[in-house]
Design a protein that fits this description.
By secondary structure, this protein is mainly β. It has 2 domains: 104 residues, Immunoglobulin-like (Sandwich); 350 residues, TolB, C-terminal domain (Neuraminidase). Helix content is 10%, strand content 44%. The strands form 8 sheets. Strands 1, 3, 5, 6, 9, 10 and 11 form a 7-stranded mixed β-sheet that branches. Strand 15 and strand 16 form a beta hairpin.
Length: 484
């Protein structure tokens, strides 16, 4: 043996022995029928076959963990780190391949008070349905009226890689709204940069354009927007938005519209399209989105209150208007899909599944900004039958909203404050062919304690099939060039 190798071996041997001593193997193991109290809660969830390792921690105090995950005769062990279970990415991917369409059985054995205890094993169901690999979101403090150090991030959900798409430093610490993909083309997208010289930054396959969609007859610039399936049209709302604090101790903040209308922008002709049915001064129209075939626009609408601050009397309904994409024309009438109910249901954020069969939306007791409503829940309406699913398997006692479909329609991601009532975090749920929806799971992180230490919300998560083709410098160059 080479002398240098011998020296290295001798030096490393004590370290190996020390590590082995720090991570004891289970012996004299007791059994319990209780499930382990793990975070994130992955017990009984359904996950895509291409998801990153479901690293977790045991909330109960323990000195060591011994965790196995197995399927179809293949077993992997977690790397033990105190009360954390961390899986090797290469081994995890092999396990996911074995378990496609089946389940992974996870067994947790913990050293607690000097004694080993094996908890009742639990299953993680592995779907054959893959999920779009790229998730964009805005990281923002859950403040009321101020913001600082905003970033729009992109995370690969197949591993733990993350990068900055747009950074507050690059745009002069101005407000940035979230990144939105076109439904049929992941490399067609937009984000907003607010303030003087800003606007909608359109990403057309790597080429950035700055769009200012405001015309003199509009109440404001564009606020909420979505692409049509072809990528030719953008439907958007213009809103005068007012934040106000509640005097009630169980409410923090109310954000509401005093004026709002809906328009369509034709990217091909550089033209704004209008309908008097979507710009009625006596009504508040907002949150527009195209149907899956592009021949209809869903939006939310409510009567303007007699007094602007009577927001608890405002209940939005989900409506639809026809649209002719060949000629850029609106229909001559509207239909109510889900009616608002005073004191019980106000609809916001409609999103149509890619196959056009279902529509996800948020409901709150009143108003149009459910992220500050604890009672806000997701619901799903079958567009062929009109049947509403209350999604009891998905919702929590805290705000559940800001949802987005995957390109296949088999998954959706949403922001939930279920953990602490303050920070929004990205949860995913599987939608089966029959429309049944699974228990949601939290986006895995490399460190299971990440969410305990993170002090920002994941705002408006959006899924894409390919990585974003620009960076913060590109956005800054586009914004700065418009000033010259």
């Amino acid at each position: 043996m080479n002398a240098m190798i011998k020296i290295r071996y001798i030096l490393l041997l004590p370290l190996v022995c020390l590590l082995a001593a720090c991570t004891p193997s289970p012996e004299n193991v007791g059994e319990t029928d209780a499930r382990p109290d793990i975070y994130p809660d992955y017990v009984g969830v359904t996950v895509p076959c291409n998801i990153a390792p479901l690293n977790f921690m045991l909330r109960d105090s323990c000195e060591a963990l011994y965790v196995t995950a197995s399927s179809e005769g293949y077993e992997i062990k977690s790397h033990r780190k105190g009360n954390e279970a961390i899986f090797n990415l290469r081994e995890w991917r092999k396990l996911m391949e074995k378990a496609r369409g089946k389940a992974v059985t996870v067994t947790v054995t913990a050293l607690e008070g000097g004694k080993w205890t094996r908890y009742r094993p639990f299953d993680v169901n592995v779907s054959v349905d893959r999920i779009d690999p790229y998730l964009t979101y805005r990281l923002i403090e859950p403040d009321y009226e101020v913001f600082s150090r905003l970033q729009i991030m992109e995370r690969n959900v197949e591993d733990f890689s993350e990068r900055v798409v747009c950074d507050y430093n690059a745009v002069g610490n101005r407000c940035m709204n979230c990144h939105t993909h076109a439904p049929g083309d992941s490399d067609l997208s937009f984000l907003y940069v607010r303030g003087e010289g800003g606007g909608m930054v359109l990403n057309d396959h790597g080429k950035l354009r700055l769009l200012n969609l405001k015309t003199p007859d509009m109440v404001s610039g564009s606020v909420y927007a979505q692409f049509d399936p072809t990528g030719r049209y953008i439907v958007f709302s213009t809103n005068v938005i007012i934040p106000a604090f509640h005097s009630r101790p169980d409410k923090r903040l109310e954000v509401f519209d005093t004026k709002s209308d809906v328009y369509v922008y034709d990217l091909q002709r550089d033209e704004v399209l209008r309908s008097p049915l979507l710009a009625d001064s006596a009504r508040l129209e907002t949150f527009p989105t195209f149907s899956a075939d592009g021949r209809g626009i869903y939006y939310c609408v409510a009567d303007r209150p007699a007094r602007p601050l009577d927001v608890d009397s405002v209940h939005y309904s989900l409506c639809r208007i026809g649209f002719d994409p060949e000629h850029g024309r609106f229909g001559t009438g509207t239909d109510t899909i889900v009616a608002g109910i005073p004191g019980k249901r106000s609809v916001s954020h409609p999103r149509v599944s890619p196959d056009g069969k279902r529509l996800l939306y948020t409901v709150a007791d009143f108003g149009t900004f459910p992220i500050w409503h604890r009672e806000a829940d997701l619901q799903m309406v079958d567009l062929t039958t009109g049947k509403i699913d209350s999604l009891r398997t998905v919702n929590s006692g805290m705000s559940d909203t800001y949802h987005c479909w995957s390109s296949t329609g088999r998954w959706f991601v949403f922001a939930s404050k279920r953990d602490d009532g303050l920070y929004g975090k990205p949860y995913f749920a599987h939608v089966a062919a029959d429309g049944s929806v699974s228990k949601p799971f939290l986006l895995p992180q490399k460190s299971p304690s990440f969410y305990d230490e993170n002090l920002k919300s994941f705002n408006v998560p959006d899924l894409g099939r390919t990585p974003v083709s620009f960076n913060p410098g590109d956005v800054a160059n586009r914004i700065n060039s418009s000033k010259q």
